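Can't paste images in this forum, so I'm doing it all in text. The chain is below; anyone willing to post the predicted C-alpha cells underneath?
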Amino acid sequence: VELQQIMPSTILALRAIVFQFLFLAVAIVIETIVLHKTLRLDYKISAQYAFTINLLSVFVGWIVFFNVQPFIPEDLRPKIISILLFEQLSPEIWQRTASTFLFIGLGVFLATFFLKFQGLRLLKLLLERTEKNAESEEMVRRFLRQKQSFKFRRNSEIYAVFVGNSCSFSAILFLLLIRLFEQTRYP
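Text version of the structure:
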C-alpha cells in the first residue's frame, strides 16, 4: 500500500519528458532550416549541427536547473517545480509570478543563444580538426589569438544561431500557449 502511494510521485515527469522531446524536435527542425538557409550548409550537416547544439543546451539547462534549484526561495521553488515538471499552472500562481517567469525566460533565451553559438563554434572547430589534423593545430592557434567580434551579417554563424534560436523559442512559446489555453478551457 505504501509503495502505491509513493509510485505516482516517483514516476514524476513523464509529461515533462515527452514535452521536452517535442520541444527538442521542433527546435531541431526549425534550426536546421535556418542553418541551411543562412550558412548555406548541406541539410545533413545543418541537421547534425542543430541536433548537437540543442542536445547540449538541453543537457546544460537541466544540469543548471537542478543545481540552482536549492537556492530558489522556498515560496517560489514548489511553484517552479510544479510548473516545469507537472504542468500545474494555476491562475493565482501565474498572476503572482508572471514577471519572475518572464525575466527567467529572457535569461534562458540569452543563455541558450550564447551556449548554442559557442557550441556551434566549438563543434565546427572540432570537426575541422579531425579532418585536417596537421593544419588544424595552426588553425586552433590562430582561432585562439583572434578576437572574435559579434557581427550580425546575414551569413554569419551568430546571426544564424540568433535567428534559429528566436524562431524555435517562438514556436515553443506558441505550443506552450496552446497547451495553456487547452488546460484552462478543458480542465
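The CA atoms of residues 52 and 163 lie 17 Å apart. The longest helix spans residues 91-131.
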